[in-house]
Amino acid sequence: MRLLIMGPQGVGKGTQAALLAEHYGIPAISTGDIFRYNIKNKTPLGLEAMSYTDKGELVPDSLTNTIVKDRLAMDDAKDGWILDGYPRNASQVEALDQMLAELGTPLDAVVALDADHDVLMERMAKRAAEQGRADDTPEAIATRLATYARETAPLLDIYRDRGQLVAIDGVGEIDAIQANIVKALDAKVA
Ligand code: AMP
Fold first, then answer.
1. Which of 52, 62, 49, 58 lies closest to 95, judged by CA?
2. Most CB within 10 Å of its CB: which of 24, 49, 133, 137?
3. In which pathway does it act (predicted)?
4. Alpha-carbon distance 52 to 59, whole Å?
């Protein structure tokens, strides 16, 4: 199973991606997690990414596409994966299309989670209090939501047109949302 999970910050992508990874026995690959790991360990990649992530801006495509390409080439990604937080703009969609063509492994589906603005703001505030992420400042949160609306949300139309979109309501109990996703995916991919 090769999946993307998309949706605005705070919609629960990471939580649902982890559950899907467990369900299908595939790795969940989060570009945000890869950047945070490198920033924490002060690698050259981390030092370069940090100036963007701290402000809630997108890390340049050249850097981001390279880390995804390298990650998808790893052994544990041979039989499937779920990508969380990538692609985030039109040029990343193109880069991913090219990677998949080279690997000869098409996408199975794109899970799109959504929730209304108030729910998202409430969840982000809660996460900021609990996790203290460097990019959970009010300014960075606002930048990320605006970037999502401008650059990432339009990508859903591309995948809808390709017949790959599975749209799921992101409001409710975690387990119930997960069950809805799995039911919709199994119906689609079967
Ligand atoms: P996330 O955990 O997905 O919200 O990602 C945290 C931060 O990492 C984002 O605000 C961006 O600065 C950076 N990032 C993650 N994924 C991407 C991507 N696909 N393209 C560019 N920057 C990204």
1. 62
2. 49
3. Purine metabolism; AMP biosynthesis via salvage pathway; AMP from ADP: step 1/1
4. 6
Return the ligand 1 atom nearest residue 31 CA.
16
Cis peptide before 106 (omega within 30 of 0): no
User: How do residues 61-96 score in pLDDT, each as one tens digit?
Assistant: 999 999 999 999 999 999 999 999 999 999 999 999
Residue 5's SS3 state is: strand
Tens of pLDDT, residues 15-70: 999 999 999 999 999 999 999 999 999 999 999 999 999 988 999 999 999 999 99
**If phi over 0 gives left and psi between -120 and 50 gives alpha, with beta otherwise, what is residue 163?**
left
Query: Does the annotation count 133 as an active-site position?
Result: yes
Distance from the Cα of residue 98 to its chain's centroid = 18
